Amino acid sequence: MKYQDRLRSFIVPNSLRFQLLSRSLLLMAVLLGIIGFFQYLFMRGFIYENEASSIQSQIQAIPPPAWEQMRFNGPDSNSNIQDKPVNPNDNHPNANLSSENPSHFPFFFLPNATIALIDGAGNFSVLSNSTINTTPPPKLANQDYQDAMGSNHKITYKIVNQTEGGEQLLVLQPIQTRGPFDEVIQASVSTKPMKDMLIQQLVTFLSLALLALIGGMLAFIPVLRKTLVPLSKMEYTVEKIDAGNLAERLPVEQGQLEIDRLAISFNGMLERLESSFQAEKEAKEQMRRFVADASHELRTPLTSIHGFLEVLLRGAMNQPDKLDKSLKSMYAESERMKKLVQDLLLLAKLDRSPINQLTDGELDVVIEEMAPQLRLLAENRKVSLQLVSNLRCRFDEDKMKQLILNLFHNAIQYTDPEMGEIQLSLDKVSAGVELTLRDNGSGIPEEHLPYLFDRFYRSDPSRARKYGGAGLGLAITKSIVELHGGTIRVESAEGKGAVFYVSIPVDKQE
Question: Which of 50, 170, 337, 447 is the most buried (most CB within 10 A)?
C-alpha cells in the first residue's frame, strides 16, 4: 500500500517527477520499437536468405540427370516414360537412373515446394507441385532466368506476391545438363510459415519489451525520487523564507552540478533581496530621522519668531528698543530657516537627479581664486595654502567651490577666532588629486566620527546652533564628493584638531 501511494504521488501531470518518468519511458518505448522494427527487417532477410540457401544446397545435391528425368516424367510431361523400358546403352539422360531403380523416379526433398525447370529457350516445365499450394508456380521474365544461369555459386532468390497463391519465395539455381548452365531450376515455397515464425518472434520481443518497461518504471521510481531529493530540500527551505526571514540559505554542495548552480544563484538572489530590504529599512529610518530633525530645526526658529511676534503685539512695537531687537532676532531666525530650506532642497536635488557637468580643469586655480574669500571668512584665524600647480582633473566648478566652503565653514566653527589655524593643501596621488583641510580646533571625539557625515548630525549641537548650523553641511559635502566619484574621510582626536581628506579621481567621466 505504501508503494502504491508513492506511485500515485508520481502520477501528477504537471510534476517534474511525472514528466521525467513519462518521457523516459516514452523514449525507452520508442527505442525498443525502433530496435524491434530493425530486428524484424533483419530477421526477415536472414530467414529468407537462410531458406533460400537451404533450398539451393538441396537442389545442388541432386545430380543433373535426375532433373532431366523429372522433366520427361513430371506433371507437364505428355508421355509416361515410366512405363517404357529404358536401355542402359542408350544416351537417354534417364538411362542410368532407370537401370538402378526402374520403378521409382527421384523423390524431391521439399513436399511443400513447387519445382520448375526453365531451359535456355525459355521453356517452362513444372517438375513437381506443392502438396499444400496447388496454384501454378509464378513465372518470371526471361531476363531473370538468363541472369540466374550465370550465377552458379551465388544465392539467387526473389519474393513474388501472387494474387491466388500469396507471397512466394523463388529460388533460382542453374544446372548443367547438355551444356554449361543451360537450364535453371526454380523452387517456389510459400512464405507464410516463415512469416508466422517472424510474428511469433516479434510477439515474444514485444512481450519482453513491455516487461522491461514495467520493470524499468518500478526500478526508476526510487532512483528518480533519490535524484530529486535536493529539489525537495530546496522546496522545504524556500517555504521558510519570507520578508521577515531572508537569512535562510540553500545547501550548495549536494553532488549535482545543476542543482548546486541553481542553489548558488538562488542564494545570491536572497543576499541581494536581504541587502535591498536592509537598505530600504535604513532608508526609511533615515527618512524618519530626517523628518524629525528637519521638523525640530524648523520648529526652533518658528517658535522664536512666534514669541517675538507675541511680544510686539502686546505693545513692544511702540517701544523702539524692543522693536529693533525683536526685528533683528526675527531676521536672524528667518535667515536660519532660509539656509536650512536651501540645504534641504539641495540635498533633495542631489538625491533625485545627481547630474553634474564635469569639465577638465586645474583645481589649484579654483582654490587660488577663492583665497581672498576664505581669508575674509576666517577673520583673525591664520589661513595657509599649499597647492601643487597644474593638477588637472574633471570637476564641477560651482559644486567644488561649495564643497570647499562647507569644509572651511566647519573648520571656522570649531577653531579659536584668534589662535585658530586652517591649512588647505592640494597634492597629486596615484588615483587622482587629494584635497586636504587641516585645523587646530577642538577636534572630534572618536565616537562621533562614524556619524559625522549623516544628515542633521552634530557632534556639539549647542556650538553648531550658535553659528546657525543644522548638521547638513558635511552631508552635502559628502554628496558632492560622491557625484565626482571620489571619497571623503576624516581623522581627528579630541583636543587635537581635525583633518578632512577629499580624493577626486582623474578619469571620472560624465
Answer: 170
Q: What SS3 state is found at 176?
A: coil
Give the distance, in angstroms, between the CA of residue 201 and the centroid of all CA atoms in the same chain: 45
CB-count burial class (<10 Å; 0-12, 13-18, 19+) for 25 = middle
Given a contact cutoff of 8 angstroms between Cβ atoms, the answer to whether 117 and 127 are in contact is yes
Encoded amino acid at 199, one letter: I
Judged against a pLDDT cut of 80, whether residue 372 lies above it is answered with yes
Residue with cell 570647499: 404
> What's the distance, CA 143 to chain centroid?
64
Residue 82: beta bridge partners?
none
* Cα separation, 338 vs 348, whole angstroms: 15
pLDDT at 356: 62
SS3 for 262-322, per residue? Answer: HHHHHHHHHHHHHHHHHHHHHHHHHHHHHHHHHHHHHHHHHHHHHHHHHHHHCCHHHCHHH
Q: Which residues contact 325 (CB under 8 A, 6 or more apart)?
A: none
- Residue 248's φ and ψ, nearest 5 degrees, are -65, 145
Residue indicated by cell numbers 500500500:
1
Q: What is the dihedral of CA 455, 456, 459, 463, to 10 degrees?
A: 140
The CA distance from 464 to 455, in Å, is 13
Please name the residue that has the C-alpha cell 522545504. 236
Q: What is the mean pLDDT of residues 312-336?
A: 79
Burial 54-65 (b: 16+ CB within 10 A, else e): ebbebbeeeeeb
Angle at 485 between CA 482 and CA 490, to 5 degrees: 55
Round to whole Å and give the CA distance between 204 and 209: 9
Cα 336 to chain centroid, rounded:
59
Query: Are β-strands 183-190 and 114-119 bridged in parallel, bridged antiparallel, or unpaired?
Result: antiparallel
**Residue 274: CA atoms inside 13 Å, Cβ hemisphere, count?**
12
- Is 144 in contact with 172 (CB distance < 8 Å)? yes
CA 259, 260, 262: angle at the middle one, nearest 5?
65
Write out the three cell numbers for 378. 576666517
The per-residue pLDDT for range 132-183, each reduced to its tens digit, is 666 778 888 888 888 887 766 677 888 888 777 678 888 888 887 665 557 8
Length of the chain as a residue count: 510
- Contacts of residue 442, defined as CB under 8 A and 6 or more positions apart, other chains included, come to 414, 415, 460, 494, 495, 497
Residue pLDDT, tens place only, 184-197:
888 888 888 888 88
- 336 has a pLDDT exceeding 70: yes
Domains and CATH numbers, the chain: 1-62+106-227 (3.30.450.20), 241-291 (no CATH), 356-505 (3.30.565.10)
Per residue in 53-86, pLDDT (tens digit) is 888 888 888 887 777 677 666 555 433 333 334 3
DSSP 3-state of 276: helix
pLDDT for residue 9? 55
Please give the DSSP secondary-structure letter assigned to residue 144. H
Compare 93 and 288 and report the one with higher pLDDT.
288
Query: What DSSP letter does each residue of 349-377 carry, written as one string?
Result: HHHH------EEEEHHHHHHHHHHHHHHH
